[in-house]
From TrEMBL, chain A:
Name of the protein described by the UniProt record: Spermidine/putrescine transport system permease protein
Keyword entries, A-Z: Cell membrane, Membrane, Transmembrane, Transmembrane helix, Transport
Organism in which the protein naturally occurs: Nitrosospira multiformis
Domain of life, per lineage: Bacteria
Segments crossing the lipid bilayer: 7-31, 65-86, 93-117, 123-146, 174-196, 229-248
Topological relation to the membrane, as annotated: Multi-pass membrane protein
Domain ABC transmembrane type-1 per the UniProt entry, residue ranges: 61-247
UniProt similarity note: Belongs to the binding-protein-dependent transport system permease family. CysTW subfamily.
UniProtKB/TrEMBL annotation, chain B:
Protein name: Spermidine/putrescine transport system permease protein
Membrane topology, record value: Multi-pass membrane protein
Compartments, as annotated in UniProt: Cell membrane
Organism, scientific name: Nitrosospira multiformis
GO cellular-component term (any): plasma membrane
Predominant subcellular localization, coarse grouping: membrane
Tree of life domain: Bacteria
UniProt keyword list: Cell membrane, Membrane, Transmembrane, Transmembrane helix, Transport
One Pfam family, short name: BPD_transp_1
Span of domain ABC transmembrane type-1: 77-285
GO biological process: transmembrane transport
Amino acid sequence: MKRGNPWLWSAAVLVYAFLYIPLIIVVLYSFNDSRLNAEWVGFTLFWYKALFNNTEMLLAARNSLIIALCASFCATLLGTMSGLAIHRYKLKVLPVLVFTPVAMPEILLGVSILLFFLQVLNFTLGMVSIIIAHTTFCIGFVAIIVRARLQGMDESIFEAARDLGASPWQTFRLVTLPLIMPAVVAGALMSFTLSIDDFVITFFTKGVGEPILPIQIYTMIKVAVTPEVNAISTLLMLLTLVMIIIAARLESNGSSEGSAKPHTAK
Amino acid sequence: MKEKRLARLLVSGPPLLFLIVFFVAPSLIMILTSFRFPGEFGGLAPITLPDKAIAEYGFTSDAYHFFFSDFIYTEIFLKSFAVAFGTTLICLILAYPLAVLIARSRKHLRNLMVLLVILPFASNFLIRIYAWMIILGPESALSHFVNTVLGAFGIAPVTLLFSPFAVLVGMVYVHLPFMVLPLYTNLEKHDPSLLDAAQDLGANAWQRFWRVTWPLSLPGVFSGSALVFIPVLGMFAVPDILGGTGDILIGNLIKDQFLGTRDWPFGSALSIMLTLAVLSVAGLTTWFARSATGQRAL
């Protein structure tokens, strides 16, 4: 019963196959020498070449990169503050405001920010509205990661710093910040990935101006599917994979050396 | 003391201010918009126009009346609930055995298996839906296979893509990790000696699952279900890409009001009804989870 139950194993293998086969097919067909995603014809790099000659797509990638960098910067700053504040002080309103955008359907956030920008600020939608919208929902993710890290730490370090005469600012700069740094970086990477991948909120807050990567992909899927979509998908998967590996490294390194109290066995 | 209060203000003030301006205010605006009149060319009619004596300005609950005036809107809401329920159920059936296996594996293997669940979830959302366009497409190997099998039984060929079936598959695929992770987090905390004790007392494998593991895992089941049910309820991209014209859900209806017909008041009213639906689902799950764990606490 305890070692390898064959039923459980076969169910698990099926689920993993269900999770991975679709993505493997996307990657394989990005190298397929055929316009149709139907059968394997032969190996080619044509779709990648087509992608790098598609100026609209490159512009969209650049815009998405700018948005993701700005949004993850703002979200990391505000999210770290939220995480600290929620952990340290007994706050009632802030936790609700920080965590609700994470939990609710994205479409609601998209719609409300669209209405707000067009009606109240009388503002043309574009990169700025996308950055603000992305920041709003990324704050919660950063706050969750930072707060989890603070919860795993021994409060007595901060007391010790205070007893030794450190001001709140000194305590923060010399003790708290170095300790939570891995969580802050992991939160930044997470917001970056969330922002560059986000479709729903971007779709509502984009306006009509500049091309944005997920919207560009959506149009390609809806209008004319060519293996160019597979090529851009493969590249994006690679990017996310690298980000996740870096984030995982940071988090595990941080938890094994940084904290004074080891994490409870997990 | 004064310094402490200043620190508190400096740390919690900026995020609070940002979220009040860019989350609370927009939500209030959305509520307000649902009580406005639609503009002649889309958008909104102005609240006051002194020169005109037409009643088409100011505030109204027309958008809500309109929702109940045609049964089709209620039907779309019911259908969205049905899809969300079906997706949650399938996710639960697929995720449970996997979560049990992960929870009972050795530590190193466990981390790897969790990572393997999260990894596909980190690839772009549209790409994960697009993958199923390829798999379910009319020229795909799966379509050929299904239709050959159906043909052998003398059943007319079916199209897999642009159907309710494709929508369900896409929904399950996109949301599965949300079910596996909370289930695993819960199952991992179970004390294995409970199962040994049940076995010693003569319980067979089925009884051990049904009387010990399952009741203890209910909090995980409920939080996983909420994490799947709520986003599915508002999802528009999956039906938009994988569904046919008849497979519209609440999300698509809302999207059309803002980016198609531009009836903002109706779109806002729909969004508010979706919010209410989400809140009641969240409230119900919390309540169920509490009463389930309350009764069966160890």
